[in-house]
Amino acid sequence: MTMLSRPFTVLSAVMARCLALLDARPWLLPLLFGLLSLLLGQDDNWDLRNYHLYNPFALLNGKVNLDLAPGQWQSYFNPTLDLVYYGLLRALPAPLAGFAMGALHGLNALLVLAIARRLLAHLPQAGAQRLPLLLALAGCMGCAFFSQLGNSMGDNLTALCVLSALALALRHWDGLARADGRGLALALLAGLAMGAGAGLKLTNATYALALCAALLMLPGGWWRAWSRAFVFGVGVLSGIALTAGHWFWRMWLEFGNPLYPQFNDIFRSPLAAPIGIGDTHWLPQGWTEKLLWPVIFALHPERVTEIRMRLLLWPLLYIGFIVLAVAALRAWRRPRAVGQAALSPQARFVLAFFVLSYLSWQALFSIYRYLVPLELLAPLVLWLLAHRLLAPSTARRVAGGAVLLAVLLALPTPHWGRARWSSEAFRVTVPEMAHPERSLVLTTQAPVGWYTAGFPASLAFVSISGGFPGSPLYEQRVAAMMAERGGPFYVLLTSNQQDPAEQPRAERRRQGDEADSAARRDAAVILDRHGLRLDPASDCRVYPAYIGRNYQPYQFCAVVHK
Hints:
six-stranded mixed beta sheet; three-stranded antiparallel beta sheet; 7% strand
């Protein structure tokens, strides 16, 4: 038994030393997450293939009004956020860029740690060794955050803006409560941070609304409350203007819709159908689901996410908030039980922000990965609830056990797509083209936007099928572009051929040929609707392309008028 227990003793000692090091030098946390990003591998998610690489490439190479939606309707998302990932890949070898992206995401751990240290200072157990660090690390082990660590999806990066605004409010609590000149300046600064995140990714607007409402609950009277909230709102709008104003203005000038093609039922851009684009199938259906949503999506995570996740903390938080509400309603009838800790004003503020953010998310999106800021705070919030509702010794056991169980069940965390590292993140072999400025490449599939970054910038790419809600004028624009350029014209299709570096297998080659033939048949149907066909005098050729070491070849076929 002694021999069996020795490895566990050594492991415990090593973990204790590591935690002590991180607690004494928290600046190591981002480096830790940078290393974890390296271990997870090169990003290869669907959105990256569709538009996260294409959008910054198009912005920097003057292709916004040259192409037509090769990344579907997401081609017109604000590319400012994607410039971070794209810039790292252009400046550094792919593994170093992945490390840097993971380290940037790891800054969230520092913010959660700062928030936890401030809130736990008001609890009887505030002196518990390394508790804030453990809760911060537990938050970073959540499925949404960890599955996106080091990747390009943007939720981890913009969470920095959300948590910065919250941490700023807590750090300067007394100034905000007074709402004097300095306090209003702090509210403006917090709004700028939050607005920057909302401008970079509009889904963060729910957190801006929640924090603005939570500021109304601070003590000091209604005039101070409204002054704080108003100045914070001005900061939010200013932050949005800083990070997204340039793009909104460009979309207005180009298409007559600052959010093109979204909300086109309002702005009526002639190139897009007059509809409001929104992914509503994730939303809860009916009042029963709305009331029980945390329990439902924990049991059926496919209701809120495309990949399998274990979301144990959310039903526990849901129960905790219900019990807290019941306790608040009954508080006037009997005193608080002996040993229970009262919530500090700062803790009540964070809990209000948490609940309001969740309700806004549920009403507007209900897509789990948009909950990254709340997921990072979830272990801390559960700890606060437990210590408000239970005696300290019981609260430590219940909250600690629940958080530990949730983290263990969440591992191993699924991912959105990874590849083994190579020195170059993306490699696309491009066919020789004598005059790319005269040519045009049609796309009929998704996601293919990432291929465009390997081609000459003067070559135009146009989607004639897929997720863009085009209007009749869009079809006329396609025909006009072909007439102006003159040709030759091509269609780009994905390929399922085997990587030449692998051992050749006849069955695998047969499957690839069948899949490629099916893709060409589907493309032929779409081309026919536009008066085009695959050139019978020219064979489609397959060209190699890689994301990391993932082989992603494509077919390149000549197209002619019928």
